[in-house]
């Protein structure tokens, strides 16, 4: 790790996904359609929430922010992945790589913090229904959103500055489909102990704490519903919280598996497939799981777009 060739690297090569050449087009079409669904689904939610005044409540404002975050999160990685699948030399300039890493971390954290805010909102709504409007005031909602943005930007900046300080030598091939921080660290020829330590500690704070808070609030929700057991109550609990919990566990499960329990044998294929789950699949599923099955959202669709959308919403 000492004095090797110290010419600074000007670009990286992204190896992309472990796909056979004959399946390249199939996967291109698949990712392109998933990306379009993500963009359209999330844009539809943002527009509906913006246009329909019935939806100007904390729950939907947070959801609008989550949709915005999902939209940006998938736009950080998928367009570049699609471009690289079509090009002979899948390269990315050094600055582009760091920018991608910054925004990737930014929106991944934002997603995590917003999921906490949404779980807290549901917790207050279900466990303290009479105090809901006083506790979840527009002011608190705005503060939660602003706090999430500030924390997420500082956290991403910290990691980015720690990576800028590293030097990269001759090896510039990233065995991944985007500039993922731990793949980048493996290429550095300076000491990365500090980076790894900070990833571990901050990862614990930014990912595990929100995950436990979310889990805690859903446990409270379930126990408060089960205190008055009725078939309807239980059905409602499972239909609203069950789907939320599945997104939450998909998102956090893969991230925790990747960053906090890295595989010893460098199984890059497994890492890449897991990364696909939270970069491509969760941003696409979130709008459907959180809102489009929901009665208020269907009502808003009808109010905003008029009768034209009856066909549209029946299909959901
Ligand atoms: C995000 O939340 C804030 C504060 O509640 C709200 O004013 C804003 O409209 C939301 N953004 C979106 C895109 O829904």
From TrEMBL:
Cellular compartment(s): Cell membrane
Bilayer-spanning residue ranges: 26-48, 102-120, 140-158, 197-216, 237-260, 272-292
The UniProt record lists the keyword Transmembrane helix: yes
Pfam families (alphabetical): 7tm_4 (PF13853)
UniProt entry tagged with the keyword Transmembrane: yes
Major subcellular location class: membrane
Membrane topology of the entry: Multi-pass membrane protein
GO molecular function: G protein-coupled receptor activity; olfactory receptor activity
GO cellular component, one term: plasma membrane
CDD domains: 7tmA_OR1_7-like (cd15918)
Organism superkingdom: Eukaryota
Family stated for the protein in its record: Belongs to the G-protein coupled receptor 1 family.
Name under which the protein is recorded: Olfactory receptor
Source organism (scientific name): Ictidomys tridecemlineatus (Thirteen-lined ground squirrel)
Gene label: LOC101959184
């Amino acid at each position: 790790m000492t004095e090797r060739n110290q010419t600074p690297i000007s670009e990286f090569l992204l190896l992309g996904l472990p796909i056979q050449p004959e399946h390249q087009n199939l996967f291109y079409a698949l990712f392109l359609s998933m990306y379009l669904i993500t963009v359209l689904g999330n844009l539809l939610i943002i527009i509906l929430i913006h246009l329909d005044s019935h939806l100007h409540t904390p729950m939907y404002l947070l959801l609008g922010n989550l949709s915005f975050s999902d939209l940006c999160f998938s736009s950080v990685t998928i367009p570049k992945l699609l471009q690289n699948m079509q090009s002979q030399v899948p390269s990315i300039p050094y600055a582009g790589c760091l920018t991608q890493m910054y925004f990737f971390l930014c929106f991944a954290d934002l997603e995590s913090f917003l999921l906490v805010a949404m779980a807290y909102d549901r917790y207050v709504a279900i466990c303290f229904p009479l105090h809901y409007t006083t506790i979840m005031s527009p002011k608190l909602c705005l503060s939660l959103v602003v706090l999430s943005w500030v924390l997420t930007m500082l956290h991403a900046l910290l990691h980015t500055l720690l990576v800028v300080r590293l030097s990269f030598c001759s090896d510039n091939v990233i065995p991944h489909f985007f500039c993922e921080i731990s793949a980048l660290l493996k290429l550095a020829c300076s000491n990365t102990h500090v980076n790894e330590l900070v990833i571990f500690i901050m990862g614990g704070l930014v990912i595990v704490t929100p995950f436990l808070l979310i889990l805690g609030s859903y446990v409270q929700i379930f126990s408060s519903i089960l205190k008055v057991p009725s078939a309807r109550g239980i059905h409602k609990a499972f239909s609203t919280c069950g789907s939320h919990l599945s997104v939450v566990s998909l998102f956090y499960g893969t991230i925790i598996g990747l960053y906090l329990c890295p595989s010893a044998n460098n199984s890059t294929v497994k890492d890449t497939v897991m990364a696909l789950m939270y970069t491509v699949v969760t941003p696409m599923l979130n709008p459907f799981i959180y809102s489009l099955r929901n009665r208020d959202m269907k009502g808003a669709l009808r109010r905003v777009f008029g009768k034209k959308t009856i066909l549209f919403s029946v299909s959901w």
